[in-house]
Amino acid sequence: MSEEICEYYGSMVFNDQIMQEKLPRPTYQELSRTIKEGHPLNIEVANAVAHAMKEWAIEHGATHFTHWFQPLTGITSEKHDSFITPKADGTAIFTFSGKELVHGEPDASSFPSGGLRATFEARGYTAWDPTSYAFIKDEVLCIPTAFVSYTGEALDKKTPLLRSMGALAREARRILALFDKEPATVATTVGPEQEYFLIKEEDYQNRLDLLLTGRTLFGVDPCKGQELEDHYFGAIRPTVNRFMQELDAELWRLGIPAKTKHNEVAPSQHELAPIFLTANVAVDANLLTMEQMRKLASHHGLVCLQHEKPFAGINGSGKHNNWSISADDTNLLDPGSTPEENLQFLLFLTAVIKAVDEYQGLLRMSVATASNDLRLGANEAPPAIISIFLGDDLEAIVRSIIDATPYTNDGEITMDLGSQVLPRLIKDNTDRNRTSPFAFTGNKFEFRMPGSQVNLSDANMVLNTIVAQSLASCADALEGSEDFETDAKAYMKQVLTNHQRIIFNGDNYTDDWVAEAKRRGLLNLASTPEALPQFIAPESIALFEQFKVLSRAEIESRYEVKLENYSKKINIEALVSIRMARARFIPAIIAFSTAVAASIAAKQAVSETMDVSSELALLLKLNTGINTITAGVETLTDTVAEAQAVRDPQECANAYLNTVLPAMNTLRAAVDEMEMLVGHDYWPVPSYNHMLFYA
Ligand code: ADP
Ligand code: MG
């Protein structure tokens, strides 16, 4: 079995091993230089690579190729072109040129650009990202690409991420140079933990809300939720297990190192974590993983829900973004055994703390979507307030630097497990506090705010850029220092003193913390419309322009696309709510109340003294329910019409937040109340009880 898996691992990827095998030596060397050092590729090399890629792809059953990219919707896009070239004699051959490999021109007028691409120049261009391997999926050779406009502005998620990785690498090198180190490669690494739900396909098909919005817009809490804590890490049910097996196999074929899988906290919720990769490759792999999950679920009669909050009342899904920086395969955030003496580690740590405090708003912005708003701050995920968890040891070290007092190490605490047969464990001093939005977890930071369906490019683009800036100011302060160690300590003392408010080791889910954070002056941006303006704040624009990650025009267009996406998502939810209330719930309640009325009439026909008071009371409640729902539909319809009429994108999003969402919630409450009263056979959609618990 293991041999078989190792045999097929990466078999659908044009990886380094295949390149060495298939490419002439000089071509391989040129390509390696491009991949490792970012050298531009000349057309002869591109032609040779394209030829080898095509031959390999055909061997593996491919008939088409596509430039695979990530427009501002955040999801992946592809348009398949066949390798077919007809010949004069009526036959055909398969061809694929270097030009077709490195450069594409999809008709891009239907992708969001936030006004960046004028309509007279609707074309966009895709450019090969040779650092992310090409792969085959469904008989199509997929070439990971960046997507830019005619004038070179980024129209995608990948381009700014790549730029930010470059910026961080440059500034990290300046710090490493202070320690006489000149690594060949510096890269940001990312390991995303993907949460998701699996429900039965027939239930999904029966709910318009799930089909069109990815979440249930109505539904009473299940009688049993997650209170017994019996699902987390529980035995995996056979149907789900078969799905997970097929998923692992497909991911391994695609060279995605799927590692950990388990049941999550909520019923029907699961998680998959791969081994970390270079940031852009990790994002590509995550998007591919999400796509495979959706596709393969159908083989098992299941549907994979990747929405952040498919069900109210139980946990939603996140995507923890584990992040670090590596230099020639050493992890720069590894504290080592004596972190208090590890000046290089402490400087990087200080830089992260400063960056996160200064740009809290940008980090919050990077994960702001309509669906993630339903999760953040709902006592299941971190609140919308950014803070850093360091753990007792690192916090004590930081404190000793601020106070200029010696740090005393308690030594490694080994836990006595009270049994000779169990191994002795070293107590992990870092995070097992799961409530922090940004936690140091041993040798990396774990950003826990991203939602399950988000493209992680934005979060990592922000993280990389803000840390790049922080490292740059550190390098500015220390380059040319006569007494490096003393100056470095003084620098850290000053920076940590200024930014210590961002460190919080306590429980982030409490109201006390919300009050305390307010006293500390930390931002609490509860909703997407409140968070997005952080993107266009003057200091954000200055930051991104300084590091050439995004231009002002690119930022403004992205801000607009995000705002529009928010309004459109809630608009769709509102329309689905109205439709379901009118076409599904009101008729069902009428049908049930007619049956109740008929029963009352029938009983009274038998005997006028028959006590029908309970049925009468029920009938009255049902009748009130129909009226309340009808009124709710009317109010919601009005608020939607008003919001749709608002022209300014920010004001429009505000209207969806402040008037449409509350009207949707009122309507939901009225419908949910009826779900508790109406007979099971009359209720027109599957209930939470039914959807969340299945064999
Ligand atoms: P948890 O306790 O949160 O489940 P794990 O130890 O399982 O954490 O790791 C979670 C993720 O962190 C995995 O995807 C792992 O590959 C990733 N990870 C580990 N080290 C690094 C690193 N240096 N950089 C980025 N991600 C990392
Ligand atoms: Mg984790």
Summarize this structure as a short list of keywords or feature phrases.
alpha+beta, binds magnesium ion, Creatine Kinase, Chain A, domain 2, ten-stranded mixed β-sheet, 23 helices, Ubiquitin-like (UB roll), six-stranded mixed β-sheet, Four Helix Bundle (Hemerythrin (Met), subunit A), globular, 695 residues, binds adenosine-5'-diphosphate, single chain, 3 domains
Q: How would you describe the overall organization of this protein?
A:
This protein is of the alpha+beta class. The protein has three domains: 2-156, Ubiquitin-like (UB roll); 165-550, Creatine Kinase, Chain A, domain 2 (2-Layer Sandwich), CATH 3.30.590; 566-692, Four Helix Bundle (Hemerythrin (Met), subunit A) (Up-down Bundle), CATH 1.20.120. It is 48% helix and 13% strand. It has 23 helices and 20 strands. The strands form four sheets. Strands 9, 10, 11, 12, 13, 14, 15, 16, 19 and 20 form a ten-stranded mixed sheet that branches. Strands 1, 2, 5, 6, 7 and 8 form a six-stranded mixed sheet that branches. A hairpin with a 4-residue loop joins strand 19 (438-440) and strand 20 (445-447). It starts with a helix and ends with a helix. The model is unreliable at 422-427 (pLDDT under 50). The chain binds adenosine-5'-diphosphate (ADP) and magnesium ion (MG). Adenosine-5'-diphosphate is lined by residues 189-191, 193, 260, 273-276, 322-324, 331, 443-444. Magnesium ion binds next to loops.
